Amino acid sequence: MYKLKTKETNISVIEFIESVKNLKKRKNAYQLLDIFTEITGYTAKMWGPSIIGFGTYHYKYTSCHEGDAPLIGFSPRKAKISLYFAAGDPKREELLKNFGKYTSGKSCIYINKIADIDIDTPTPKGAS
Question: Are the C-beta atoms of residues 125 and 69 closer than 8 Å to each other?
């Protein structure tokens, strides 16, 4: 049986951000913390050891796999900053047209730094 790895934890968001070795990524993490807190109205929580999430939603796949995940979140990874948005928004591609410089996966957007994106662009489902 599949065991969900990314669960909400009691790890301190600030302590996690302070542990980010790259100073630029750490500053970007604090900026994202402020931005996501403001646009969602949710308090940031750690999900697993490295994702800072805001809000929560329950998902269930056709495979019967189900669980809870943050509505939106981010993680200042070593290579890039990962932005996470609730999956399934049919307007996602349209909303990301003017987002700036990024690459994407199924539910992740990868950026190098905040300066690469337009933070005033409307964000995918769950972020507003």
Answer: no
